[in-house]
Design goal:
single chain; 491 residues; alpha/beta; Recoverin, domain 1; 5 domains; two-stranded antiparallel sheet; 12% strand; GTP binding; GTP-binding
Length: 491
Amino acid sequence: MEIILPIMNQFSEIETCVECSARNLKNISELFYYAQKAVLHPTAPLYDPEEKQLRLVCARALTRIFNISDQDNNQILSDDELNCFQKSCFGNPLAPQALEDVKMVVWKNTTDGVQDNGLTLNGFLFLNTLFIQRGRHETTWTILRRFGYDDELELMDDYLYPQFRVPHDCSTELNHFGYQFLQRMFEKHDKDRDGALSPAELQSFFSVFPYVPWGHELYNTVCTTDKGLLSLHGFLCQWTLVAYLDVHHCLEYLGYLGYPILSDQDSQTHAITVTREKRIDLEKGQTQRNVFLCKVIGPRGTGKSAFLQAFLGRNLPTQMESPGDLSFHAINTVQVNSQEKYLILYEIDVDTEFMKASDAACDVACLMYNVNDPKSFNYCASIYKQHYMDGQIPCVFVASKSDLPEVTQQDGLSPAEFCYKHRLPPPFYFTCCSQGPPSTAVYSKLAMAATFPHLNDSELGAASFWLRVALGATMTALVGFTLYKVLVKSK
């Protein structure tokens, strides 16, 4: 040992020295123990022995873990939060006295490690530094691996992108577990409790992400408050949009937020539901889906972008006042037979070519023409004949800018005659050039058509009527049965 100690002091990367003998079987088990420990729980990625501090990449990972575990976002881990953290990482909560002992050690060795009887970020980082300095770096590794980190302190692909198969013709939606989790996250970062996330609060929300996934177009994609801030409704709409359009990115984002840890689940796939095939919906004449995609198609100058913004409650004067960054998507909720459905509007670029059937695929097509442009309807009629006439996707023609004088379209048939010939509902007249909020009737019509794609326009009204009748009959029967049971018990 006298020979080896100077070498260990000279080369700080040497973690352990074990004096052993194969002949005398001296310290053989200890040798294998430390060799295994050096491989499974290396010190080098965590700690800089020369600087006697955590490496930057380790401190960054532990900071993210602290922020996830700080469930009320007050920058302090309370006893309850520490116990949740302890149970998640090690299976059991700390005994009350052990918890106090931990805080006492931190308090004695730091100036700001303990505050309001809880552990601060500096205290949390000090505690992990202490574990490593005392040779208990497996404790820190257990924490890191529980939160998805690999040996290079990067989040593992298996953690961010769990296996998740979406069969053909199925869609993906957040389920109630996902919405509950995201609402908790929203409330955690809404520090002033005004029901909206300010830019600073949104930045706090993304502090556990390696990058900010949403740009300024977010504010033209979802509803905002009167002050232009992201409301809870808009926040959930944006997550619904991501889950529908790109479920793998949605799983990645939920992983950054720590969904598996905070929800005590194997992976974030627990927050996602895969809908059944659309073919089965058409066969049964009903759907279990809650999110529908509408492609808005029309030539330039028809007001497609304004149509999307009107869906978010913004009339044309409001849009002109604060144009913001362009977004090709808009999502909001619509009532369909007293049920809340999410409708996604996707504006199709006029230069887009429908090269294959999947390019035209959606739940409902909105074919929009300008009543004041004689060439406008011809484009919509052509798209309909090429891609939708022989298919099962419902189509709704929208006559935009209805506040302007209507002119005769150059197509051989008038829009009303064309719709009648092809057994389509008559064109729906729309304008958002008004002082008050735009009418939502056209969006309800689109959502209704997407929900009941097997029905034509006249049948949709009947379906709505009979659904209300069926619901009323069910409630009446339920009340009657309850009264019957009460009367039987009283006898």
